[in-house]
Amino acid sequence: MSPLSICRPGDKVVIREICGGAGIRSKMEAMGFLPGEQMMVVSASGGPILVILHGSRVGIGRGMAGKILVSPESGS
């Protein structure tokens, strides 16, 4: 597993764990970031990391992205 913050554009990953307290986990859950969800990294250079999650583009700051542990999607 590795943090979302080090993924590159085009990476297809699965969320494995959200690190942090109840507050951050609750906020991430409200945004759709849940263990088992698949997403694709669109942009990771400069500012926020942009991913496609549930068919929508979602931007997330690097600090929060560092708390999302992911692994490569099977078959990719």
Could you explain how this protein is built, in words?
The protein is of the alpha+beta class. It has helices at 22-30, 62-65; strands at 2-3, 12-18, 38-43, 49-53, 56-60, 68-72. The protein has a single domain, classed as Roll (SH3 type barrels). It is built from two helices and six strands. Strand 3 (38-43) and strand 4 (49-53) form a beta hairpin. The model has no long low-confidence stretch (mean pLDDT 93). A six-stranded antiparallel β-sheet has the order 1-6-2-3-4-5. The longest helix has 9 residues, at 22-30. The radius of gyration is 11 Å and the shape is globular. The chain is 17% helix and 39% strand.
Give me a quick take on this structure:
This protein is of the alpha+beta class and 76 residues long.
Please state the structural category. alpha+beta
Measured distance between first and last alpha carbons: 15 Å
Helix content: 10-25%
* Overall outline: globular
User: What is the rounded Rg?
Assistant: 11 Å
CATH class: Mainly Beta
Low-confidence residue ranges: none
Number of helices: 2
Order of helices and strands: EEHEEEHE
Number of strands: 6
Proportion of strand residues:
35-45%
CATH superfamily: Ferrous iron transport protein A (FeoA)
The CATH architecture assignment turns out to be Roll
Strand order of the largest sheet: 1-6-2-3-4-5
Mean pLDDT: 93
Number of domains: 1
